[in-house]
Amino acid sequence: MAKLLGWAGALWLSWLGWKIASAEVELTTDTTADKPLGAGAAALIQVINPKPWTVALAVVGVFMSSSGAPAWLLALVFLLMAIPCMLLWAWLGIQARSWLHSARALRRFNQLMGALLAGSGWLGLLG
């Protein structure tokens, strides 16, 4: 069953990678309609994001039972790790705007990201 799920995951990531790599590129220079998210909306996005919940459940399940660490300490460690990572992610997004200034550059970036996504699915099957 695990092998079947691995193949299904690799095929799914390949399809997603293809969709990203072959997506139409449209650059818009009109930023008047862009409105940044408020603090409440940004927090809500984080609350409904399944990835951190999955990680948090794994950490609680493994580290709280084996190390006896209190939940507040694990939450503090997560916070101290998350803040620099989010700042780096935001900075990279700002920098990407200057790198991806043309439709051709954005298309090449999408092709690279699509190939990396598809490749990551197949690399998972090698192990």
Task: Give structural notes.
This protein has five helices and no strands. The radius of gyration is 19 Å and the shape is flat. With 127 residues, it is an all-alpha fold. It is 80% helix and 0% strand. It starts with a helix and ends with a helix. The longest helix has 29 residues.
Q: Enumerate how many helices there are, as a single number.
A: 5
Query: Rough shape?
Result: flat
In whole angstroms, how far apart are the ends?
A: 16 Å
Bin the helical content.
Answer: over 70%
Radius of gyration: 19 Å
Average pLDDT confidence is: 86
Main structural class: mainly alpha
**β-strand number:** 0
Percent of residues in beta strands? under 5%
What is the compact description of this entry?
The protein is mostly helical.
Features:
mainly alpha; 5 helices; 80% helix
SSE inventory with pairings:
Layout: H1 2-21, H2 39-48, H3 50-67, H4 71-99, H5 103-126
